[in-house]
Design brief:
With about 575 residues, the protein is of the alpha/beta class. The chain contains 19 helices and 12 strands. It has helices spanning about 1-5, 10-45, 50-95, 100-105, 110-135, 135-150, 155-200, 200-205, 210-265, 270-310, 370-375, 400-405, 420-425, 435-445, 465-475, 495-505, 520-525, 545-550, 550-560, and strands spanning about 330-335, 345-355, 360-365, 385-390, 395, 405-410, 420, 455, 485, 510-515, 530-535, 535-540. Helix 6 (about 135-150) runs antiparallel to helix 10 and helix 18 crosses helix 19 (about 550-560). The longest helix has about 55 residues, at about 210-265.
Length: about 575
Amino acid sequence: MKKLIAPMKNKIGQIFAIFLFLVVQVYCDLTLPQYTADIVNIGIQNTDFNFIVATGEMMILMVAISALATIGVSYFSSKVSSGYAKDLRKIVYSKVLKFSNHELNEISRSSLITRSTNDINQLQSVLGMIFTTLIFAPMLGVGSIIKAFELGTDLSWIIAVTFVAVILLLVIVIVKVLPYFKVIQEITDKLNKISREILIGIPVIKAFVRQDYEQNKFDKVNKEFYDVNIYVFRTILIMLPLMTLIMNLMVVLILYFGAFDALNGSILTGDIIAFIQYATQIVTSFLMVGAFFIILPRILVSGRRVNEVLTTELTITDGELSEIKPNSTIEFKNVCYLYPGSEKETLKDINFCLKPGKTTAIIGGTGSGKSTILNLIPRLQDPTSGEILIDGVNIKNFKLKTLRDKISFTPQKAILFQGTVKSNLQTGKNDATDDEINNALNLAQVDFVENLEEEVTQGGSNFSGGQKQRLSIARSIIGHHEFYLFDDCFSALDMNTERKIKENLKNLNESSILIVSQRISTIMDADEILVIDNGEIIDRGTHESLVENCGIYREIVNTQIDSMEVSL
């Protein structure tokens, strides 16, 4: 849990201020019952109006100081708890950005969203409660016990009986609701997952008229979430009237037995009033602590879930080397890859080399491992065996930033971020000028953007699939890189646009280019084409040699000619 506590280190001064205000607040609250007793025992008993006024003025002063102290506690506790949540969320977000596909398979994306929001909010709430309740309540309770005994009454047994009754009630409630707090967080993950899935899949749901089915699936989880929450909070809320009943019975018992002591002259009337106030503060303090312990299991669940993210061991870490020489080569040497939980290798003994000024292409059936090869180069994943070398040095020896700065990766799915065209293009190069951006847009045949400040909605939903692909390509070629990786990113483009973009890519002739595609027209002019089947390179060569010697490649060519997708 050290990583959970780490964000608190820079808030020691504010925490000290909270303690200081708490001490002042408790001191003022403890003096009020004694002042009340003095007014009754001295002022009223002796009809001393001046004493009553003076004591009343002191009570008003104590109330004012207590109110100011309460404001101070609330201010600094909210500042500490909110600052803690902000810092913790930043740490979690930074850690998640370092996750590879392996970690994202271990902790789902929907669960990560819940942990970064709901779970951290729970920790923020409990931190505020610690300062305003968990620390304040024991101080007030202990002080009230000391003050109650100083009154010298024999009514303390009533407090003890009340204490036992409250403990029994709290234990019953905690035992009943404890198992359900973990269930609530798990169902929250499930609800988040289904909601995210439905929102992303709305076009498919409408196309196949699956609205009723998806609605029923959501309603089922939503009803489960509702039922568990109703049970938990109904059980907790039942405690409130029962606690009020117990406290009222305590006051009745004090008044009843205190009346006999007052008649016997063993206790003053004002002391009985003060004793009631102290007894109420004692029980209230314990109730506040009890209420904290009721929600503590849920907080512990949230803490464990956030801590799991922070302590997740990264499978892909930095190397020591911080420099890659220009005009480098990348070599795959007996590379194999096995996805976690899979029994069959996705890649087997992959060997090839990316050389400066050369274009290498990969073609193969769906699921043959083409995209996996591209993911291995920027270390989005690491091979399970074999090596990937840059100028003979394993890429694991390089710092991730050094490696990825040399690589431009255009993913299969064009991903745009909310903002403007300019801000999206500057993702590829932070300091890109308007001229550089316009040049990249021209190279990628982006002729639909009127100005660089044109809005891009979330996910680029205000652009078509082909437009998003062209913007994605423009982003990848805006900066100079040693290696350019294109993962089937021409699939939504018409043949003419694709031809023009490929012609423009010849400007990258000093760099290594690796293209993955299902279309022969995209790869046919590559210097070397790798044909992959079931994770193995079954043949390699130029387009002409593969048409002549490779049956699978020739079959792909013939199929695309027949469907008029390419023209040879």
